[in-house]
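INFO  loader      accepted 1 record
INFO  loader      residues=394
INFO  predictor   begin
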Amino acid sequence: MALRLITAGESHGPGLTCIVEGLPAGLALDEETLNRDMARRQLGHGRGGRMKIERDRAEVTGGVRHGQTLGGPIALQIANRDYANWEERMNPWPVEADVPEVHLPRPGHADLVGTQKHGFGDVRNVLERASARETAARVAGGAVLRAFLRVLGVEIRSHVVQIGSVRVPERAAAAPPLAVADFDGVDEDPVRCLDAESSRAMVAHINVQRKANESLGGVFEVIAFGLVPGLGSHVSWEERLDGKLAGALCSIQAIKGVGLGEGFDLAGKPGSHAHDEIFWSDERGYYRESNHAGGLEGGMTTGDPLYARAAMKPLPTLTKPLRSVDIATKQPAQALRERTDSCTVPAAGVVGEAMVAFVLAEAYRTKFGGDHIDDVGAAVAAYRERIDWRSPPP
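INFO  predictor   done
INFO  writer      dumping C-alpha cells
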C-alpha cells in the first residue's frame, strides 16, 4: 500500500488533523513519545506569543487500539487552544457577528497570490491555511512514521547550523562524523545548535534583530542514521530519493533551498574531492571513508548517514510591516501585522525531521511491503543478508 500523509485545518480554526495511511499493523506507539515531538516543535529562542498559548498534544482518534496500529488509516487531531479567541472569525459555520475582512497581503506570504488564484476578497481565507501552524499536524504524523522507522533501526535527528548571518564553523576534516549520541542535549539548547559558542551568538543576533523589528531565517540540517543501501531508485526520475527529499523539505513553509550531502559546496570542488571512494574489508564489507554525497548516490541511499540541509527565509510577518496594497481599494498600505515569531529555524528543524521521516518511511514501504510490522522487519533482515550489509547500529 502506498504511504500517504494528509493534513487539514487552519491556523486559528478549531484544530488540525493529520491522516497517515499505509503503515502496517502491529506497530507499537507510545503516547508520551508522540507528544514529545509535538513539544519539540514549539522550542527555540525567537518564538512569539502563540507558543505561550498552545500546548500541543496529538489525540489519536483512529487506526490505533491499545497502543498498536491496526493497519488502517491513523487519524490524529491537535486542538487549537487559541480558537477560543477566534471563534467568531474562524467558525466553520455562519455567525451573526459582523466579521471584518482582511485586505492587506504580506510580501513573502501566500496572501496575494492565493486570493488571486481562488477568487477571494478576504486574505484570511488564504493565510490561515498557508500558515506554518499547519506543520504541527505534520510533526504529529512524523512522530508515527519515526516510530515505524525506529523499529527498522533508523534514527533521525536535526540541528541548526545557521541563523541570519551567524554560522556554525565547518567541522574539521579529521573530526569524527556526527553520531546519534551527539544530539542528546540539542533540544535543551535555546536554538537547537550543537556548538555552544555559535548558539550564544545566534541568540544575541536574534535579540538584536528582534529589537530592530526584523525577522531572521537560517539553515537546519537533518541526518538519518541506520539506513540500508538501495532505498529509492535510479531507473525512473520520480523514484529518485534526492528529488523526493528536496520536494518534501521545500514543501515546508518558508524553505527556499535544499542541499543534500555537501550540496552547493560540491559545485566548487574538483571530482577527486567530491566523490566518496569505495573500499572493501572482510570485517566491514563495502564502506566509504568519506560522505560528501550525504548518503545518496544515483537517487538511492548508500547506507551511510543521510544528510540534508534546508535554507529558510526570514518570516514574512514583520512587527514593522512592509509596503503593500489594499486589495479592496488598490491603494498603498502597510501589510497585515499579526502576532508572529522573529525566528523559527529551530522549530523548522523538527518539521524537517518529520518530512524526511515521511520520505524514508515511504521508501521502506515501497521496497519491503508487509501487512504486519514483523513482515517488514523480516523482509529488511533478508535483504541485509542478501547484500551482506554490515552497518553498525546508529
